[in-house]
Amino acid sequence: MILNSCCLRSIPIIQGLLRRQISSRGYSSCTSIISRLTGRTLSIGNRLAQLRKWYTTVNTTDYVRSETARKIIGYWLLGCSGMVYGAVVLGGVTRLTESGLSMVDWHLIKGMKPPRTQQEWEDEFKKYQNFPEYKYLNEGMTLSEFKRIFYMEYAHRMWGRSIGAVFFLPAVFFAYKGWITKSLKPRLFIYGGLLAFQGLLGWYMVKSGLDEEKISKTQIPRVSQYRLAAHLGSAFALYALMFWQALTHLLPPQELANTKNIRHLRIYTHGTLSLVFLTALSGAFVAGLDAGLVYNSFPKFADRWIPDDLMVMSPKIKNFFENATTVQFDHRLMGMLTLSAVVGLWAMARPVDLPRRARLAVNATLAMAGAQVLLGISTLLYYVPVHLAALHQSGSLALLTFTLWFGHEIKRNRLMPKV
Ligand code: HEM
């Protein structure tokens, strides 16, 4: 007894010394070490309690050095992902109010200063008048109207720069404090790289809308739908990675038996996540081609189930990316498929004995998928008004958020045995 209690008290010290080997060996060696240290075979209840303690101290200290530092890093990443969410919404409103092409050059530092004097504003407006959007869409625009679209795009760009500052400055501080461990470091490099890439991609996208030669062919000033989809897709990827990592730091893992049902549910959740992501990408093509302004009826396309101009372009593959009808048709289909997948996920999760938080997450995912489809249909029926389209766009990130949350709640705990 005395020996056992001494051993138990010395566990935290030995944990620290052994954490690297143990985290790479997994559950069985972990429980056998606990058993060896305590000199007794633990009951299942005790094992789970011990494992929970081991997991929170051993597994997460692999990322950061202390509980407080772990939480601070978690909230920081959550804040950064929230700011990326904000940038997506702001970017959507900028596009929907046709403000995105008002700033015709890009400088990381110089671009932070907006025009101040009357002369500076007039010079900026003159520059804008040399580009296709003014010529084909906004001819005769007044200076005060120009200021409105300029400030919209300016806010979007400054928000992007603020995310850079909120990400990079604390990252340097945390590294200096020694809070960032080996396994977190490469992740932070990926987030930082994606963030910088996102800025470059944004400018690459805007440039396609300033190209006189290209725009003069259609006389419709808008950015390339391919570049818009890439810009949106990389923002979604950055958001998802940061949000997932924030959850890993902030939400303690749950004691979830590693059963066959749970394993299947995990695989299915990953499939649903990919579908949400792909549907959002297809939505970016709808937005990029203004394809929400053709066939504003639902469920039929005018009076047909399948529109007759679905495959009019040649080669056929071009229709999927450049024909507004096909792009809208695909997006509707994918939206309905995503909704069905989420209903399937919810039905599959229903009989499984899930912790309260996981149950809440799957219910929220179902509700959001329903709301998102309703928002999509309303956006279409009302001819893409700014408020509905912006809500529909942010709804797609909310749906991704809830699906990620559920995926995180049921993610594999390496220390739980397979049953
Ligand atoms: C779960 C399902 C859905 C998801 C995740 C989703 C996602 C998206 C996204 C991310 C965009 C791009 C917004 C932008 O960049 O501004 C978009 C655009 C659009 N979606 Fe969906 N969508 C879904 C379902 C639907 C459905 C069912 C419809 C209609 C029947 C629909 C109609 C539209 C329309 C009209 C646009 C263009 C709006 C614009 O021009 O800004 N969506 N969708």
TrEMBL record:
Keyword annotations: Heme biosynthesis, Iron, Membrane, Metal-binding, Oxidoreductase, Transmembrane, Transmembrane helix
Gene Ontology cellular component annotations, sorted alphabetically: mitochondrial inner membrane
Catalytic activity, reaction form: Fe(II)-heme o + 2 A + H2O = Fe(II)-heme a + 2 AH2
Cofactor(s) listed in the protein's UniProt record: heme b
Gene Ontology terms describing biological process: heme A biosynthetic process
Pathway(s) of this molecule: Porphyrin-containing compound metabolism; heme A biosynthesis; heme A from heme O: step 1/1
Localization (cell): Membrane
Main location: membrane
One example GO MF annotation: oxidoreductase activity, acting on NAD(P)H, heme protein as acceptor
Superkingdom of the source species: Eukaryota
InterPro entries per UniProt: COX15/CtaA_fam, HemeA_Synthase_type2
Membrane topology type: Multi-pass membrane protein
HAMAP family in the record: HemeA_synth_type2
Classification via PANTHER family: CYTOCHROME C OXIDASE ASSEMBLY PROTEIN COX15, CYTOCHROME C OXIDASE ASSEMBLY PROTEIN COX15 HOMOLOG
Protein name: Cytochrome c oxidase assembly COX15 homolog
Organism placement in taxonomy: Eukaryota, Metazoa, Cnidaria, Anthozoa, Octocorallia
